[in-house]
Amino acid sequence: MAASMNQTLAAGAPASRNIVGSLAGIATIIVIGIIGYYLFPNNLALLTRIIAIALLVLSIDLVTGYCGVATLGHAALFGAGAYAAGIASAHYGASDPLLMTLIGALAGAVAGLISGLIILRAHGLPQLVLSIAVIHLFHEAANKASSWTGGSDGLSGIAPTALLGLFEFDLWGRTAYIYGLALLLIVFVLLQLLVRSPFGMLARGVREDPLRISAMGASVQSVLLRMYVISGVVAGIGGALTAISTQVVGLDSLSFTLSAESLVMLVLGGTGSLYGALVGTVAFMWFEDVVSAANPFHWLTMVGALLIAVVLFAPRGLYGTAAALVQRVKGGRA
Amino acid sequence: MSPLFEVQNLNKSFGGLAVTNNVSLSLAAGDRLALIGPNGAGKTTFVNLVTGNLLPSSGTVRLAGQEVTRRNAMERVRLGLVRSFQVTRLFYEMTPEEHVALAVLQREGKSGRMVGRYQAMPQVMDEVRDILHLLGLLELSHLKVREIAYGQQRLLEIALALALRPKVLLLDEPAAGVPQSETARIEQALDKLPPELAVLMIEHDMDLVFRFAKRVIVLAAGTVIFDGSPQDVTQDARVREAYLGSYANVGSAA
Fold first, then answer.
1. pTM
2. How many beta-carbon contacts under 8 Å exist across A and B?
3. Torsion sign over Cα A84, A85, A90, A93
4. Residue A100 above 60 pLDDT?
5. What ipTM does this complex have?
């Protein structure tokens, strides 16, 4: 009896710690969001852009960090969301921001399914090459279909209506920022549930040893493809947020550069943790903004130096390394 | 009654080399069969053919009345043929509890659930604890697998297999790499396997084979050269030749 109670307690403790941890995480995002709003009232467009990219980086984390798939073509999912939301508004008058977000999420899911079906046929380096091919194909398709996408001039004429019929998207980007923050929070909470669910555990298993997963009778391909579609939804929402907030969609949203940069952000923050994705995005984009303003000629050099420093001295990324340190300190005390 | 698991005239050749040569064997519920043979006898190939990781050149594999010769590894697992690995294949960043929970969830068709946590599913947790307890791993259930000893990882391999509730269990060298002092724990674990489970063990450690198996099959150069009781295997002239031949070589080299 006493033994079984102890077991229950032992099993219950990490669970309640997890809940406290996620609530603290959500609170942190809200607090940082509010601080950002008041600290940089003239820079809300950048902050909204950071949120959109954070969604893309979270989406990469799902397939790369949690499932071990190497990809340099993930902007395809983001760009698909951006273009779909943009086209819905510019060509079809579907300008309700919630509807545009939904369309972006759907388009991201479809793009996720398509790229997943292609990329998941290979492993390792060939997989990486396939992902690069995918992003180039998406990019080229958007470039050629210029009557729909505006080609290299970009897609304009996007005019989102007031959010919930109440909040106009203002010139300062306040509505867009708050909407973006709300989207990020919702996605973040749902993803936390996802990564702790049985499916999340299965995905981690796939990353560590796919052969063992199939020896358990589970289909590795099916796990990866499902995760790719989910990841497409997340990236698609990020893309739609860009279309709504900037009211233009350019080919850069479907670019290899964006794919590679967001992978770098993930590595910078730390793969395999949702917080790592957020920390990496904020750190990279903030650093890029500060350094490019301070020294427009050498900012890329500085960004490169930062990356080298992180990879050499904090190989698990900023968040991963910090978390490991905290763990060690705690372990030392216990 | 047809046997639970049946391999008939299985052949596999790579190029001109016949690695598996007309191998037949069958297992009924509760059987304890050991498959032994010198290095290069074709044991690993046989395991791969049976589990669906390799396709045979000819022959059939039947499981619980169904022919599975062309079915893939996953389908065979779902039909009740579960294997353990010669070199542990575990998730090193996950805990023993998570491992067994994942296997239980998979068996129950719940591993694809995207909300909820296994810790909140009392049925799953009860079973996970029972299995970990059976194998003496309960105290380690919250450690990461990379932090536990190799012998315990081997036990976790068996725990994972049991959590899938197989009809036929294929143990690929369950004691491989385990220090002599710890093989007793593996043996205890093997003793606790459900009595109705049909077990095919591939093993090098002859002591373990003699203690565990009721029947022994000896494979040499891809061919079955002996099928009988553990008592008779050491007396068999062909087996002695297959083994002593290699020992004699070792002797002359030394």
1. 0.87
2. 94
3. positive
4. yes
5. 0.86
